[in-house]
Amino acid sequence: MAEHTTRTVREHYAKLAEGYDDGANAACKRAYERLIPVDLRGCARVLEIGAGASPLLDAIGAPFSCGADLSHAMLSRRNAAAGAARVVADMQQAPFPPSSFDGVYSLNVMEHVPDPAALLRECHRLLAPGGRCALITPNGGVAGLLELLERLRLKLPEGPHRFVDTAELRRHAEAAGFRVERIETLLAFPAGPDALVQFIDRCCAGKFGLFLHAVFVKP
Ligand SMILES: C[S@@+](CC[C@H](N)C(=O)[O-])C[C@H]1O[C@@H](n2cnc3c(N)ncnc32)[C@H](O)[C@@H]1O
User: Fold this and answer.
1) CA nearest to 92, candidates 71, 118, 110, 112
2) Which of 11, 12, 14, 59 is deepest in the core (most CB within 10 A)?
3) Taking the model in full, what pTM does it have?
4) What residue spans define the domains of the chain?
């Protein structure tokens, strides 16, 4: 695996940016579209960390929204006309004042950040009291299976990464000062109709999933 630093992550996404969205899994996208707007319901100022070109931020439709990404190449593929502000930055050291947002989320970003504890401290700092933080990241508890799927070309290459598991995610969130509302497994079988995907997830709840879905609240 490539050396995992902020520089190598930026270089990886500079190469991957063109056509990135074409490779995204449809069942995963549907799950993100279903969960994140509920997690951040009522948040007036929403920040997406590692936003890339994902259209979800615009679909949430908060009165103020901002997409931040380390990679200019990924961020420049966003639909500029849709209205969210765009900021190129390493969100381990975010260029925003404290309490700038009511909701923060990230989709498949945590695993690429060399210092996930720093990222969660920044999420906490950026949120106003009562603010909500939602994360989806591959489940480090099944890292071997995720790597096998990548070798079989059943998922996009991760590039530089380190997966986190439930225990590490909880530890960083609590150390940052968050109350953990939930950390659940997600997408045990990310293929087929949504009803089937959700049924399998209900059967596997807490036992197995390729992803983790976490919601933290700033007291
Ligand atoms: C797997 S892609 C996901 C993109 C988008 N969230 C989506 O679901 O389509 C990971 C994204 O995180 C960004 N990223 C990685 N490390 C970052 C950091 N330290 N700060 C901000 N963005 C970062 C990458 O540049 C990339 O766009």
Assistant:
1) 118
2) 12
3) 0.96
4) 6-217
With vertex at residue 59, the alpha carbon angle to CA 111 and CA 158, rounded to the nearest 5 degrees, is 20
Residue 173, token pair as written in the block: 């969130």
C-alpha 189 to ligand 1 mean position (Å): 23
Q: How many CA atoms lie within 13 A of 57 on its CB side?
A: 31
What is the distance in A from the centroid of ligand 1 to the CA of 203? 30
Per CATH, the number for 6-217 is: 3.40.50.150
Q: CA 22, CA 88: separation in Å to the nearest integer?
A: 22
What residue ranges line ligand 1, CB within 6 angstroms?
6, 9, 13, 49-52, 54, 68-71, 74, 90-92, 107-109, 112-113
